[in-house]
Amino acid sequence: NPKIGVLAIQGDFDAHATALREAGADAVLVRRSEELAGVDGLVIPGGESTTFLKFLERDGFLGALQAFVAEKPTFGTCAGCILLAKEVLHPAQQSLGVLDATVERNAYGRQIDSAIYTARTALPGGPLEMVYIRAPRITKTGKGVTVLAERDGFPVLVEQGHLMAATFHPELSADRRVHQRFVDLVRQSLR
Ligand code: GLN
């Protein structure tokens, strides 16, 4: 099985680890930058992207993570998607800058910020349930980015080479197709 790390400094990393195991991967929690060397792929979970950044700025973790996401399969969900994006707005914020996309934080406002939708997806198997929690919005994507699902005309699940990102929380639904897609991506990278 591919060995996939879940960045476990903040947010709902346990649910991701469970989802990855259900999708056929060996999931391990990554808490120190040295642990990145032992994994074939990485999930950056939801949480609060500013809190992630504060933590990562300590002890060289940010540099190690930047090197990792530049070439190894990485899947960012919600705050993780914000961290991967090249441009972050509302407010502007530092990021890892690898996903060719512009992301607006907390784009759905206070009242309707958290919701469950079911929408069409390019993933095989019919409509997909999507759990949104203070979700960001992908407002722009570059040419190399494939959109796998949308909400109100904006991308919510995207792929770019070895990267995947979702503005929702696939780990909170029972459907494992999204994690399965990422596990397959990691498998392909090992061939
Ligand atoms: N609002 C959070 C942020 O801006 C993301 C929310 C989430 O990850 N559920 O970082």
SSE blueprint:
Blueprint: E1 3-7, H1 13-22, E2 26-30, E3 41-44, H2 49-57, H3 61-71, E4 74-77, H4 79-84, E5 85-89, E6 99-104, E7 115-119, E8 128-132, E9 137-141, E10 146-151, E11 154-160, E12 163-166, H5 177-190
Parallel strand pairs: 1-2, 1-3, 3-4, 4-12, 5-6
Antiparallel strand pairs: 6-9, 7-8, 10-11, 11-12
The structure holds glutamine (GLN).
Model description:
With 191 residues, the protein is α/β, with parallel strands linked by helices. The chain has one domain (3-190): Rossmann fold. The chain has five helices and twelve strands. It has helices at 13-22, 49-57, 61-71, 79-84, 177-190, and strands at residues 3-7, 26-30, 41-44, 74-77, 85-89, 99-104, 115-119, 128-132, 137-141, 146-151, 154-160, 163-166. The strands form three sheets. The protein has a seven-stranded mixed beta sheet with strand order 2-1-3-4-12-11-10. A three-stranded mixed beta sheet has the order 5-6-9. Strand 11 (154-160) and strand 12 form a beta hairpin. The longest helix is centred in the C-terminal third of the chain and has 14 residues, at 177-190. It is globular. The model has no long low-confidence stretch (mean pLDDT 95). The structure holds glutamine. Glutamine (GLN) is lined by residues 46-49, 78-79, 82, 105-106, 133-134. Glutamine binds at residues 46-49, 78-79, 82, 105-106, 133-134.
